[in-house]
Structure prediction request, 360 residues.
Amino acid sequence: MFVDPVTARPLGDLPVYGSASALPLRTWLDRLHRQLHLGDTGRLYSELAASWLWVVVVAGLVLWFTRARTRRRKTGRARTIGRHGLIGVWIAVGLLFLSATGLTWSTYAGAHITDLRSALSWSTPATDTALPGAPAAAPPGNEHADHGGMSMPMPGDAAGDTSTAIPQIDAALALAKSAGVSDGVEITLPADTRTAFTVTQVRRSWQFSTSSVAVDPSSDSVTSVNRFSDWPLPAKLAAWGIALHMGLLFGITNQILLLVLALALIAMIVLGYRSWFQRARRDRLVGRAPQPGALRRAPLPLVVAVAAVAVAIGWFAPLFGWPLLAFVIVDVTVSAVRGRRRPTGDDPDVQDTREPAAVG
Prediction:
């Protein structure tokens, strides 16, 4: 609801979404980013992308640094690959950051991250909004629980005196300032007589603290303080990471950096497809598959370690684990089928290095 602060005249209303109270346009963009307006299916696709993004980045870095000294030609497809890799090296840290922070919002990996933080006492502390000495909350379904209770007027309560709403809000803000919580806050009104007003610092540019305080204007008291400085370090890092991911932590500078990162990623994708088409045009192939058997030829301890790590990561991030398992099954099946079709003794993993016989 938009209200003229001078005349108190309502100017109109719009639906809002999320803790940031996003208006319709931003809500549309947020849902496009979160789930492509495809509901749960789109959200799972986003989690799939975030689950594999870090793998692609790490693999790209390994390819870049292991092949950097072997490159000689800088024309045609080699030049395209060089540009693709160079951009990737420059934005690798940003892409890894987006992958890690994006997974915290995901359905399956996000739930595991929440459970892990809870088990390690890394969760964000909650503000206690219960008023001291207030009666216990009513059992579910008891619609008469509040009858005969306190008659303190609540903002928006049809049975209360709404003329006291603004003085209570002003008193709540003053109490929060006395507790050190100010500079851009959001006031949450209580839903009943057992709950305090909550004043919380909102995410905004260069705001590194999101402290909150619960206050009771009727008794002119601060009932609970949740200071950001008392949070565990992982909880602080999570809050800063979310604000940085959303482009809020450093204001316009943060947003420009994210825009540059997005444009660079788009350029990488275009260059990647271009190199693929250049190869297909040159070799008359859609793409030459890599030689199988690398893991099979590796030492047993390395194979066991790789398998254990893959299983652990796959359990933690199921939309990485299940596609990986599907890739492995398809690869093994294709290799087995090709092996049956190949004449006996013809090993695809062994290249024939013999010199051709002289003629004449």
